[in-house]
Amino acid sequence: MILSIISAIGKNNELGKKNTLLWNLPVDMKHFRDLTRSHTVIMGQKTFASIGHPLPNRRNIVLTLDDSFRAEGVEIVHSVEEVMKLLGDEENFVIGGGQIYKLFIEKADKFYITHVNAEFPEADTFFPVIDKAKWQKTKSEKYGKNELNKYDLEFAEYTKRAF
Length: 163
Description:
163 residues; Dihydrofolate Reductase, subunit A; 4 helices; 11 strands
C-alpha cells in the first residue's frame, strides 16, 4: 500500500480561504485528475463539501467526526485507523484539507506537491511544513504561467528519506 498526499500550495504553504482554493489553475487540475483517476481519494468533510460531489472514477472516502454526516457515493469513516483499514495495495491519495493533511503526514509515503509561485496573504488554511530532513524532492517539472494559468508552477514529488 502506498499512501500519497497531493496538494497545491503557495510560497508560504497556503492552501485556501473559507474552504475554497486561492487560485484557478487548469493545468494543476488536469495534473490532479491524471494522478488520482482510478485510485482511492481520502478527504475531510469540508473538502467534500467544497467539491460538492464524489470525484468521478475514484473511490471516495470522507473522514469526519460528525456521526450524522451522510452523502451519496462516498464511504464515510470517523478515524484515521478506519481509513487505513479500508486501503488496498494500490496507491491511495490524501487530497485535503488542512486538518486531514496534518493527520496523515507522518503516515504518508510520498507527496505530490504543486508549488504555486505566489503569496496569498488572505489564506486561512495551510499545508504542514515539509520537513526537508525527512522528505527528499525526487522529481521536479516547471510550468510557466500563461493565459489560462496565472502563476508559474512546479510539479514536485517527494519521497521519505531512508534512515
